[in-house]
Amino acid sequence: MLNMRQATATNLLAAWMAASVVGCAGTQEPSTEPAAEPSGSPGDHVRFFVIGKSWHYEQDVAGELNLVDLGYFAEIFKTVDGKASDATMQLRQSGGEPIPFVREADGGAVLHGRAGKRHQDLAALDAELPNGDYAFSFTTPAGKVEGYEVTLAGEGGKTDLPPAPKITLTQGGKPVASNAVQPGVDVLVSWTPFDSGRADPNGIADDLVFVMMEGCRGERVFHSGRPLGTPNPLEPDRESSRVLTYRDTEVTIPGKTFAPGMTYELDVEHARLLDTDERQGVVGMSTFAVTTHLHLTVTGTAPKGACETARGG
């Protein structure tokens, strides 16, 4: 009996110890290892952002330029498959309120800041969006960008626009009027030189030129390309193959773009960059830009049901 009692006690002790080990394992403290840091950098998702003031001119058939309006814009350009959210910009002065980015374009590739008013004079534009330092903040899967500042101002803190470009159209080596474009023939679009343009002293981005065209329903049918490896909106799955700068004075739009009897809206923009910087792989820039708009009409008869009369064509 003594041996049996000793065996029983030994078994009970072993069982109790085993239960204690299981209990301790079940109530162990949670791991205190730090969470994994996001991989990559914000520049893997956002290539650049820009804030700018812009002037819009319309060129008539005779080649005369007329001011349409003035405004401001703010945009964030993502990389291919890039992601960004919670974006704002804010003037770094007393009373500056955050301006949210509220709209996406180009299938989410571009974020647009809240639009301002359209103005007829410079003083009204400067009152709505004063010159100064603007801080951008946004979130990407690779981390946050916070308080990234760029300066929006010309010499002496003033707002000064580059001269508006005048557009010339050529087909088959001969000038063509904007209301007599031939269908199916390449159009050489040229413009007056961007004489106030310059190379970027920071070596990031030289002053830029953009040529864009929309069809009569507002669909984009031509774009000359965007800088810094961002996608061309007509080829959203790859980087722009070409970027125009102040050195360029012409570009060709393929003839297949121009259908008989249709109308198109052509824009040529000169963008003078005021400030450029790069942080966390993201380029920040500010600009004063001017755009000339030209309405094109193609000769011939449009297919039935086409929008050949859209936008006054």
Short description:
This protein is mainly beta and 313 residues long.
Describe this structure in words.
There is one protein chain. The protein has helices spanning 2-26, 122-128; strands spanning 46-59, 65-78, 85-91, 99-105, 110-113, 132-140, 143-152, 167-171, 174-175, 187-191, 208-214, 220-223, 231-232, 235-239, 244-245, 250-253, 263-279, 282-297. It has 313 residues and is mostly beta strands. It has one domain (42-305). The strands form 3 sheets. Strands 1, 2, 3, 4, 5, 6, 7, 11, 12, 15, 17 and 18 form a 12-stranded mixed β-sheet that branches. Strand 13 and strand 14 (235-239) form a beta hairpin.
How are the elements arranged and paired?
Blueprint: H1 2-26, E1 46-59, E2 65-78, E3 85-91, E4 99-105, E5 110-113, H2 122-128, E6 132-140, E7 143-152, E8 167-171, E9 174-175, E10 187-191, E11 208-214, E12 220-223, E13 231-232, E14 235-239, E15 244-245, E16 250-253, E17 263-279, E18 282-297
Parallel strand pairs: 1-18
Antiparallel strand pairs: 1-2, 2-5, 3-4, 3-6, 4-5, 6-7, 8-9, 8-10, 10-16, 11-12, 11-15, 11-17, 13-14, 17-18
